[in-house]
## 1
Amino acid sequence: MEKIDFNAELNSDQYAAVTSPPDRPALVLAGAGSGKTRTLTYRVAWLISECGFRPRDILLLTFTNKAANQMLARIESLTGYPARSFWGGTFHSIGNRFLRIEGGALGLEPNFGILDTEDSDKLIKKAVEESYPHFFSNKDNPRSKLLREIISYARNTRSTIQTAMAYRFDWIETPASQIAEIARAYEAEKRAANNCDFDDLLELWLKLLSENPDILKKYSERFGNILVDEFQDTNKLQSDILDLLASRGNISAVGDDAQCIYSWRGAEIDNILRFRERYPAAYIYKIERNYRSSPQILNFANKILDGMELDDEEFKKTLVPARDGYFKPRVMPAMDGASQGRNVARAIAEIESGGRYGYDDIAVLYRSHFQAMDLQLQLQYAKIPFVMTSGVKFFEQAHVKDIVSQIKFVANPKDNVSFLRFCRFMPKIGDKTAFKIFEKIREVAASKSLPEWRVLSDKKVLAKVPAAAKQMFEAAAADIEKLGGLVELAKRSEKHVEANPAEKIPVQTDFFADMAHAPEREASADPAAENTTEADFSPKAIIKCACGGWYRDAMKTLYEDWEERAADFDALFEYASKFDDFDDFLASVALEISDAEGRESEVGGRVRLMTVHQAKGLEFPVVFVIGAAEGLFPTQRSIDGGDVEEERRLFYVASTRAMDLLIISYPRVSAVGGNFEMRQASRFLEDIDPATYELYGA
Ligand code: ATP
Ligand code: MG
């Protein structure tokens, strides 16, 4: 490891925080762009180079996969240790890692599947239909998605359903006891299918640590230091996990209370405000200087900070510029959404032709996804390349989920929701029928001690399949058995390598032959299989197998634009080829979806469009914030609810993403359900001294 000159690369406040004693709790409390994330990165390097910690003794927790990857890459180049030797990632990904290794103590099988929100909704629906068959006929009862949100909020805040409802869902009149019962039934469904939802990754992680003193001891002794970025957005579950793991005070947290933007998901701003009470020995570090933004932008951001309610002077912040700047922030009102889009497109074209900034230096942020629609259109007209970190993430797209669900099913054969997923291609098989078929599959599999995917073409199972679907079901069954064979090979070889790390992986060429004699199946030799002398069971080969065969035919029946969708498979192959280890691959796919950030293509040279939430922690030379009008930002819902403080913090987050240029725009008129509505400038702009910005085209 090369010697790092910590003093030269950090200012004195940052240096103090980086070199804080590892056994004393440390909190860095500082405004946006002051180098908190940088401080955390250097602290890891310092712990390794100066304190003699090993990478595996360091736990680094962040909120998005992208932030985690960026930090680990930086740490890798600073320390020379490969990124994967650290315990670094999002809370959910580290929870997943704990549960894969230690989950047996909770009765969790190591191949458990991870449900995304759509899967969870299906299971909740099933739980409702079984507990309260008439629940959904009452129009006042919440639908599955809202039920999931209530249950999730209660779990993340570690409160009862009743408290969660009173606090955040007070318009719902359904008795809390009913929803609690649904939550229990949903829980049972998940466990029976050996599945976890995203909240389980935290909740079971906490349970694991609190119920197993030996396991807790092992890890709390092992992690010399636990570092947490964006601490202001931790919720009760996360802070309870941290309290257990960092009971020795070996925690370093960084955050900015003014950037707490996830309270709707249970983020507990008190975690940062009361850090000193929780950890009385804590050192608190402040960093005043801001390296990101121009003095003009900071002046504007300071005015937003002035408008925030503060209980405690300790948290009063002023962003002090460390660099020069030329332009005041600009505010551009527009006639309506379309003209806002046109103005922004025109401004982007001008900025780009100035030669100083490329398209990828520019980001457009908005409060809600729908606001990007007009803009997308105008950017297309103006032929400006852009990439949108969309609400629907790559792995949430229907066809990508189709592929992944087949793989998830063979990896975790009890996973009834993934089975349901690919059954939706079959004529006459709705959710209910699919669940019934699965019951039979489970029964047959148990009686023969075979994994579920091996018995899809069993006569007893086929007897449950509606005649119209038989042909497709049988084709699918054959392909899924093949897929299962590959996954089994991949898993066997992983185990083998673990046991004998030095040895080469033996390739079992007889596996397909063995499969041709699968129980209750005509021994129709598969020509492709016969030719296989060397089975390729890499994640990429597995994905390829799932994209072909019956599925390629089936997708033509369901998707009109199947050719376009099939083009995405290349992106999937590419993604898969980054992995050697099958379990890593699968966990990564599942966790991509848990991320607030979404997945964007890595192609450069494009303007980036994203929500403010997705822009957390990022910075861009040029930032547009569109839709800064009453009812949009702050949202109507927050205005009606009488609390816009979180919206104000979001506005602060948005403005502080900008390094050189900040341009804020809003439509004077917007169309709501065919009616036109006049809009006022956002109160967040009205609250600010107009001398801090320039008004254009008013
Ligand atoms: P946010 O609150 O938005 O997450 P942050 O406090 O984490 O911001 P960073 O992203 O770490 O801030 O830093 C902001 C920018 O300032 C980065 O480009 C970083 O490299 C730069 N920076 C921070 N400290 C220094 C320094 N001492 N010298 C030079 N550049 C610095
Ligand atoms: Mg940061």
## 2
Amino acid sequence: MLGSAMGCLTNVPDDSEWERFEYVEPEMGVDFHLKFYAPNRPEAERIAKAAYARVEELNGIFSDYDPGSELNRLGRAPVGEPVAVSPELLDILQRAQALARDTRGAFDVTAGPSVRFWRQARKRGQMPRVEELQAAQKRVGYQQLSLNAVNRTVSLRAANLQLDLGGIAKGYAVDEAMAVLKANGIARAYVAADSDLLTSGPPPDKAGWKIELRNVDEFGNFYPRTVFLKQIALSTSGDTEQFVEINGRRYSHIVDPRTGIGLTSRMQTTVVAADSVTADSHATAVCVLGKQAGLQFADRRKLQTLVLELAGNRPQVTPSRAWKVWE
Ligand code: ADP
Ligand code: MG
């Protein structure tokens, strides 16, 4: 017994001597980064390829752009008829629906019609028409989706749902890409899709992966704050980059599904969690809830959240009680 256990131990590779490899590929509409330590280049290339292949497979399921994606096919299913879905689609929808219930619909993957109108508005620099938004609202509501985990089916309660996993799919893909790295013996890695990142073990001789977060000083000036993260996910969400300005108001690409309107509160939220799918979806949810309700939600769930408010002439940063990345 002892002998075989020892044998096992000596077989564990010493990755502290391994080389660092970095890759970036366009996936899911963003730069998808992989950084990790591997024994040699051919191994690293093979593993990176496998990770990207997994992301592409997921995109084929989750995409709201591709009319043939499993998600879009589900949205066109006949009302009331159970549709068998892939384990991945069932899994991500279960997480999305749980968060929708927890936030009373602030996070809602059926908000696709309104998201689409605000996306067009952003392109044209023009408000969506009120009638359009009102019509879109009829197809929005997480209760329109009914999941059956036992039979692994989903049924619709309204016709023609426009499902949108934009607030959760990148996090899911990041977790899955990391799982591929792990399955291939990679224990020191950084995976990021735009503002959703996940770290496993740190680089050799380092406390963690170097990440820069936006912070403000006591005078309201922005400055990058460097943190070192390991075995944790971090996501940022907010309208500081993607918005349309109409008549002096900024409307975000994140909508409040309860009104169908793009968020106008200028807020950015950061969430730190054990996995990327949680960090991604919760960062979007806290954004929709707004500062006060968002921080209350975070405190009730012991969620590590940082809210950066841009309203007024002095930006402000407020951490939730559980925040421990700094302080
Ligand atoms: P980003 O895509 O910029 O990283 P998020 O993770 O916050 O930011 O996701 C924003 C995306 O989530 C939108 O582009 C849209 O696809 C989707 N979305 C918008 N509003 C909501 C909402 N209230 N609930 C769930 N998803 C949303
Ligand atoms: Mg998100």
